[in-house]
Specification:
CATH class of the largest domain: Alpha Beta
CATH topology of the largest domain: D-Maltodextrin-Binding Protein, domain 2
CATH architecture of the largest domain: 3-Layer(aba) Sandwich
Number of helices: 14
Helix content: 40-55%
Largest sheet: 6 strands, mixed
């Protein structure tokens, strides 16, 4: 009998210990379940330190760091530092997993798939409020679907700008006023076709070349949003601005899919949640800043022209054939996702 007493006693003591400590085990689980995995992620963007995508990315990284207690850390590199300033190479590296997270305008991302540029069809949106609602609904789902084909996870979108026109030649109120005007544009097809259709001469130039080419009268004007114009001091070297909201462009925030799917579900949820918060903050911030910047431009002597509905319609009628061409290019599914030429109620 004695040889069975010791094992039985040990068994009973173990049971008693486990029952007595069950409450402590529950508490221990609750504490550890709040801990995030320790992971370090790398994020890249094309923008400068003052760019809205940089401000958004830094806020995102800060929110993630704070919520995770420093366990999930994001190293952010603006100006495409990871690829020596080469934006196209940065996007390629992002798709291949050399970089974990990225922020690029839809026009840049369209190097992967032209359909990602669908929201830039001229005069598709009348306000920031309208475009926010659409992107946060069907537009975002469309981005998610297309980007997935290229190994990327769509995390969020924020404003680049509703784009306006400035120049030194004359006030622009009619299509005739822009005839022959040399306008600096981004390299994207939509920008070139838009100004060519209006009879202007689009001149693709880098942002760093803009001030010199304006002051030397190589070009007459440029198009951009208020926020970026202020950072480039465009109001100091241009006389006239036409506010016409002719085109909307946004930044897409993405993650490499393999990297993202390798993260714990809790970490994935954290990144999605904090990216949403950061994008909402930056949208609000940019919209408010534009109001302040406009007031400052007026004080600086820039003549700002707000087109009447009748004046605006003359421009819109002029580029109707271009809109139809672009709609065919991007396809019915893309246009439907962004409710282009559809009831937007």
């Amino acid at each position: 009998m004695q040889k069975y007493i010791a094992p039985i006693g040990l068994f009973l003591m173990t049971i008693i210990f486990l029952i007595g400590c069950s409450g402590q085990n529950d508490n221990l689980y609750k504490i550890t379940s709040n801990d995030y995995q320790k992971v370090r992620l790398v994020m890249t963007a094309n923008g400068t330190e003052e760019g809205i995508e940089t401000l958004t990315a830094r806020r995102f990284a800060k929110l993630v760091d704070e919520e995770s207690g420093g366990n999930v850390h994001i190293d952010f590199y603006p100006n495409d530092e990871m690829t020596g300033g080469n934006t196209n190479e940065a996007v390629r590296t992002l798709t291949e997993g050399g970089v974990d997270l990225g922020a690029y305008v839809s026009g840049t991302m369209s190097m992967l798939d032209p359909r990602l540029e669908v929201a830039t069809i001229p005069w598709s949106f009348s306000s920031y409020e309208e475009v926010r609602k659409i992107i946060d609904d069907t537009g975002g789902e469309y981005y998610k679907k297309v980007l997935s084909d290229y190994g990327l996870v769509y995390l969020g979108s924020t404003h680049n700008a509703m784009r306006q026109l400035t120049n030194n030649r004359n006030p622009v109120r009619t299509p005739e006023d822009i005839q022959g005007m040399r306008i600096r544009v981004l390299g994207g097809e939509v920008y070139r076709l838009f100004f060519s259709t209006l009879g202007a001469e689009p001149v693709p130039l880098g942002w760093s070349e803009l001030n010199v080419t304006i002051t030397q009268n190589y070009i007459d004007g440029q198009e951009n949003g208020f926020f970026l114009m202020q950072s480039g001091h465009i109001n100091k070297i241009q006389k006239y601005m036409t506010v016409w909201n002719y085109l909307y462009e946004n930044y897409l925030f993405v993650a490499n899919r393999k990297t993202f799917e390798a993260l714990e579900p809790k970490t994935q949820a954290l990144l999605r949640e904090k990216m949403h918060e950061a994008c909402e903050w930056s949208r609000d911030y940019l919209e408010e800043e534009e109001k302040k910047i406009r007031r400052q431009f007026v004080m600086d002597g820039l003549e700002i022209i707000d087109l009447t509905p009748e004046e605006l319609k003359r421009f819109q009628d002029k580029i109707k054939p271009l809109r139809e061409k672009l709609k065919l290019k991007y396809g019915e599914e893309a246009c439907k996702a962004f409710r282009i030429d559809m009831d937007k109620k």
